Fold this sequence. Notes:
The chain is an alpha/beta fold and 358 residues long.
Amino acid sequence: MLSFLGFGRSPKKVTIEGVETPIESDGKETILTAALKAGVRYPNNCRVGGCGACKCRLVSGKVKELTESAYILTAEELKAGYILGCQAVPKTDVVVHVDHIDAGAPAHPLVTTGGTISGRRALTHDIVELTVTLDEPMKYTAGQFAALSVPGVIDQARSYSFATAPQADGNRTVVFYVRAVPGGQMSNWLQGDAALNHRVQVEGPYGEFYLRDSGAQIFAMAGGSGLAPVKALLEQALNDKLNRPVVLVFGARTQKDLYCLDDFAALKAKWNADFIFIPVLSHEPEGSDWQGARGFVTGFIEKRIDPQAQVYMCGPPPMIDAAIAELERFSFRANNIFFDKFLDQSHTAAAGKGAASP
């Protein structure tokens, strides 16, 4: 009975093949959470079972799976014993094999700190820029994200990407772009008047989305609030004086969904190589005064991408999936494609999952 009620849970040892020292799970946390707390550079992005970045093969032991992994993993992966690290709580000591632990991934200390929402600015009709002043500095790499919660109001954390390049000595102020999701408890609360000057908790940094070393073209695609990590990534590249050519395709529905145009015009003016920025509208009314590109972002890949380019994509899952399929059509190398799917309850409800970042 005590075990059923959650009492008496004992720590479990998690051995990750290739990592010298086993780590410990407290009996309630997932393999991914335990690994990140121990400083292991375990690949991850969404942390809610929606992207598959944290998948690993269960070599031995037993786990409790919090969600249905068949939504993400293939039949072959399931047969081979793969599980999602972010959704697997060890029931016994376990041994797992992670296919790709990135030795070059960011290795910032994980910080949990309080903060105050010190600024809020409307970017579009449904996206706000949220500024949080932290109690303690947090170092991160451009492209990463943090988990945000509101103690006593919304205790379940949601994930939001940093929208600006980091400061070298740590950040007391961080910026997020938050899109209002229909029915989303967190995103709609953050856009309301009660949020300003309210206390929050911020935990991070997380994520494996960051600019890899190369001299190749940066081909970036973003949709909605997925523009945040791409903007941060390019700002950091400018600060580092990189001279790589850039093509950035930003997908939106109509003109009212466009934002940060002045920011990217400024980036282009300062860039040390070719910088092409293409806003693309998919549902702009015919006959409007829009003179720019129309259609879907995938239609702007073929004639603008270099065969050796590195691809960086952030946005809703349908956009990412369609773009990957288009890149595969051109036999584009998978190891040059990096993405971060922006999941919310509308993307996870069909699989019986909770909300990711609403």
